[in-house]
Write a structure and sequence with these properties.
The structure is a single chain. By secondary structure, the protein is mainly alpha-helical. Helix content is 71%, strand content 0%. The protein has one domain. The longest helix has 29 residues, at 17-45. It is elongated and about 55 Å long. The N and C termini lie far apart (52 Å). The mean pLDDT is 79.
Length: 119
């Protein structure tokens, strides 16, 4: 029986050199933006304020792109930061079972900061 399949995979050898280099440049740009955005979000998480109004506008200014890349990068960086925070909190809870009072206060502060990142 014949089936129809769909794949998003493409091969660089099947593309023109110009198209392949454009795709590679976009991937490199996306990763650069992701690292920079993650850095800014971790600074905000640590309580250090930014010198600019909006993270989206700053990414657009730095990298001269349209809205798609900055918005997707910001979403991805927030997701990575949240996952890292949850992993860290699980590990710290296992290690510091005896000092629950000091942990609970610091955990509350961290949760407030994490919520402020998403708002």
């Amino acid at each position: 029986m014949k089936t129809v399949t769909l794949s998003n995979r493409f091969y660089y050898r099947e593309l023109d050199k110009q198209d392949a280099s454009a795709i590679k440049n976009d991937i490199v740009l996306y990763n650069q933006m992701l690292h920079k955005t993650y850095k800014y979000l971790t600074l905000k998480y640590q309580g250090i304020n930014w010198n600019f109004d909006s993270l989206q506008k700053e990414m657009k200014r730095l990298y001269h792109t349209n809205d798609y890349f900055p918005l997707s990068v910001i979403w991805k960086a927030k997701h990575i930061l949240k996952c890292n925070y949850e992993q860290y909190s699980c590990l710290s809870n296992r290690k510091n079972i005896n000092s629950k009072e000091s942990n609970s206060k610091s955990m509350r502060n961290r949760k407030k900061l994490l919520k402020s990142i998403y708002n």
